[in-house]
Specification:
With about 240 residues, the chain is α+β, with helices and mostly antiparallel strands. Helices cover about 30% and strands about 25% of the residues. The chain has a five-stranded antiparallel sheet with strand order 7-6-8-9-10, with helices on one face. A three-stranded mixed sheet has the order 2-4-3. The two termini are about 30 Å apart. Bound molecules: zinc ion (ZN). Zinc ion binds near residues 87, 91, 104, 105 and 128.
Length: about 240
C-alpha cells in the first residue's frame, strides 16, 4: 500500500499553548491549569511531561511542578502533533490528580486514551516513542534484534549492556562481570525494539547508564532470557 505523504510542521510554543487550551476545554472539562511549554531538540521522544515528586506520609508520592516538552527536531503531521500534546495532557491530568498508575501507561492512562480516541476520533498511542514513522526518524534504523543485560551492582547503580547475538559472547560477558565481585544481579533480555539501537554492542566491561522510567516501558516488550552462566534459555528463536 502506498503511504500518503503528509505535511509536517514544526510547532511553536504559541501553537502548543493554543492547542492545550482547546483540548483542555474539549476533553478534560477545563480542569487543567496551563503549565510551562518547552520546545526540545531531543532525539529520544516526541513529547514528555516533566514533573517533580516528593514522598508524603505513608510513602505516597505527591506530583507537582509540571512542564510539557514537545519535540521540534522531528517534524510531524499536525494530527500527530496534536495526539502527542493530548498524550502528555493525559499524563498531566493523572499526575496532577495524584493518580499513580503504577507504570507510565497503566490502566487509568489507557482508559482515558481510549475514551478520547473514541469520542473525538483521535489516534493517541500508548507510546509516543513508538509511533512507527517518528520512531524510525528518531532511531534512524529499523527494528533490529538485540541481546542485552540489565545489570545491578552492589552499590545500587544500574546499567545496560548490549552484547553481540552470539551465545558464547553472552556467556563470556556473564562470567566476566560476575568475576568483578561487584555484581548484585544480572537479567538478560532479547528485543527488536529500535530503542536499543542507541546502546553500543561489545563484549567489554564498558556499560551504559539508562533512564529507569523509559527502560521500564521498553522492557515490557522484551523477552526475558534465563542464563545460569552455563547455558541460555530463550523464549523464542533469535
Ligand atoms: Zn507517555
Amino acid at each position: 500500500m502506498r503511504r500518503k505523504r503528509q505535511i509536517t510542521m514544526k510547532p511553536t510554543v504559541e501553537y502548543i499553548t493554543e492547542r492545550f487550551h482547546h483540548f483542555n476545554k474539549l476533553c478534560f472539562g477545563g480542569e487543567l491549569a496551563i503549565i510551562p511549554i518547552k520546545l526540545s531538540n531531543a532525539k529520544t521522544f516526541l513529547g514528555k511531561l516533566g514533573f517533580k515528586r516528593r514522598k508524603r506520609l505513608f510513602g505516597k508520592w505527591e506530583y507537582y511542578d509540571f512542564r510539557m516538552f514537545i519535540n521540534t527536531r522531528i517534524e510531524t503531521s499536525e494530527l500527530e502533533l496534536e495526539d502527542t500534546i493530548l498524550h502528555e495532557m493525559i499524563h498531566y491530568y493523572l499526575y496532577s490528580h495524584q493518580i499513580d498508575d503504577g507504570r507510565p501507561h497503566g490502566m487509568h492512562f489507557r482508559q482515558m486514551m481510549d475514551h478520547i480516541n473514541k469520542t473525538y476520533g483521535r489516534h493517541i498511542t500508548i507510546s509516543h516513542r513508538s509511533s512507527a514513522e517518528s520512531l524510525k526518524q528518531i532511531e534512524g534504523t529499523r527494528p533490529s534484534p538485540h541481546i542485552f543485560a540489565i545489570i545491578t551492582l552492589k552499590d545500587g547503580k544500574r546499567f545496560i549492556k548490549v552484547v553481540p547475538r552470539i551465545k558464547e559472547r553472552v556467556l563470556s560477558f556473564h562470567k566476566m562481570i560476575k568475576r568483578t565481585g561487584k555484581l548484585q544481579s544480572i537479567e538478560w533480555y532479547y528485543s527488536k525494539d529500535p530503542y536499543f539501537n542507541r546502546f553500543p554492542s561489545s563484549v567489554s566491561l564498558r556499560v551504559q547508564f539508562f533512564d529507569e522510567e523509559e527502560m521500564k516501558e521498553h522492557l515490557t516488550t522484551a523477552v526475558h532470557i534465563h542464563c545460569d552462566g552455563k547455558k541460555l534459555e530463550l523464549g523464542e528463536d533469535l
